[in-house]
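User: I'm putting together a teaching handout on how sequence relates to shape, and I'd like one worked example. Could you take Metal-dependent hydrolase YfiT from Dyadobacter helix, show the sequence you're using, and then write out its predicted structure as tokens right after it?

Assistant: Happy to. First the sequence, then the structure tokens directly below it.
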Amino acid sequence: MELEQLKYPIGRFEPQSSYSAAEVKSNIQIISALPSKFINLLGSWDSDKLNMAYRPGGWTVRQLVHHVADSHINAYTRFRLALTEDNPTIKPYEEGLWAELPDAQTAPVELSLQLIRYVHLRWVLLMNSLDENDLARTYFHPGSQKTVRLDEVVAHYAWHSEHHYQHAFQLAARNNWS
């Protein structure tokens, strides 16, 4: 399998200029489904499987799950900032360095699976309560120098959810892990 396909199993995220109410709803459903998909896939994996990189030079599945928890906690916080402040500047973080911290390399994945589960419960509850005006609110990302609308954030994290789920799912498929 080609490295680009291993890195981006569902392709790269391509933001749209706008999102319909149906697209937002579908993206929220994808975010909502991630915790149970991860739990169902990874629930019986032993340390050898969890400590395997999903691609050459990539993170282990353990690091990947901890990354998703870190990333989605940050996204949830940024989302709330955008809803309560006018175009706040968010705080970027070095996700690659976070994945190298000792807890990301050794902590049981169950800790992050539960974090993902409960953050998603709160986040999905919040997202489902928003109207078109709320979803048009923005934050400024100093890393990309872009102002981002919340409906795009929803789309991005739906993509991010499936992107990382597919890393683990396709690793399992390539190794015939049922």
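A couple of points you could highlight for students: The chain has a mean pLDDT of 97. The beta strands are 138-141, 146-149.
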